[in-house]
């Protein structure tokens, strides 16, 4: 509701409130809410605590966009939590942590790696190594989306549905 009210107000003042603006507002305000609402963050961390507690082995985690920020923050906040490997797509940890210096969560080191799949045309996702302290992340450039989205910023929303990514890239990563 807050996002829609903001866009309506902007439109009344002459903004187009076009689909790209709606997409940006929808994505950026979620990230801002994540960073500025400790109670929400604590509730999400509690859910992750519950999920990770029932597992018998450290999980492999796949995360996209804000989900990458969430899992990175979770691993920093929970030094005893362990995951086997992290596969991120559309990683925007660096985007939403401008000016902050922190290291990649150490929990990955004994178990596995953080592999970041990124598309050069993604408007919100970047190579993880663009953020100082994330030098050990394995960045793999991929091209996702169909002919309407693979060349522009909308590729950010194409990771989950890209058949080529899932049928070719992911099985290779899981073997290695």
List the keywords.
176 residues; four-stranded parallel beta sheet; alpha/beta; single chain
Q: Helix count?
A: 5
Q: Distance N terminus to C terminus? A: 44 Å
- Strand-residue fraction? 5-15%
Unreliable residue runs: none
**Helix amount:** 40-55%
Mean pLDDT: 81
The gross shape turns out to be globular
Overall SS class: alpha/beta
Query: How is the largest sheet built, in terms of strand order?
Result: 1-2-3-4
Radius of gyration based on Cα positions: 17 Å
What is the H-and-E element order? HHHEHEEEH
Number of separate strands: 4
Largest sheet: 4 strands, parallel
Lay out the secondary structure.
Layout: H1 2-12, H2 19-36, H3 38-54, E1 60-64, H4 66-77, E2 85-89, E3 114-118, E4 138-141, H5 163-175
What can you tell me about this protein's structure?
This protein is α/β, with parallel strands linked by helices and 176 residues long. Helices cover 40% and strands 11% of the residues. It has 5 helices and 4 strands; from the N terminus they run H-H-H-E-H-E-E-E-H. Strands 1-2-3-4 form a 4-stranded parallel β-sheet. 24% of the residues are buried. The mean pLDDT is 81.
A few lines on this structure:
The chain has 5 helices and 4 strands. The protein is an alpha/beta fold. The radius of gyration is 17 Å and the shape is globular.
């Amino acid at each position: 509701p807050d996002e829609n009210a903001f866009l309506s107000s902007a439109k009344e003042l002459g903004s187009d409130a076009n689909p790209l603006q709606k997409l940006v507002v929808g994505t950026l305000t979620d990230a801002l809410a994540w960073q500025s609402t400790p109670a929400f963050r604590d509730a999400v961390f509690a859910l992750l605590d519950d999920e990770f507690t029932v597992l018998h082995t450290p999980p492999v985690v796949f995360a996209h966009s804000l989900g990458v920020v969430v899992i990175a923050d979770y691993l920093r906040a929970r030094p005893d939590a362990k995951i086997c490997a992290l596969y991120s797509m559309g990683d925007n940890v660096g985007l939403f942590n401008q000016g902050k210096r922190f290291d990649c969560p150490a929990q990955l080191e004994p178990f596995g790696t953080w592999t970041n799949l990124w598309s050069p045309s993604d408007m919100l996702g970047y190579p993880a190594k663009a953020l100082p302290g994330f030098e050990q992340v394995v960045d793999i450039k991929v091209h996702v989306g169909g002919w309407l989205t693979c060349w522009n910023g909308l590729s950010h929303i194409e990771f989950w549905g890209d058949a080529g990514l899932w049928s070719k890239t992911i099985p290779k990563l899981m073997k290695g």
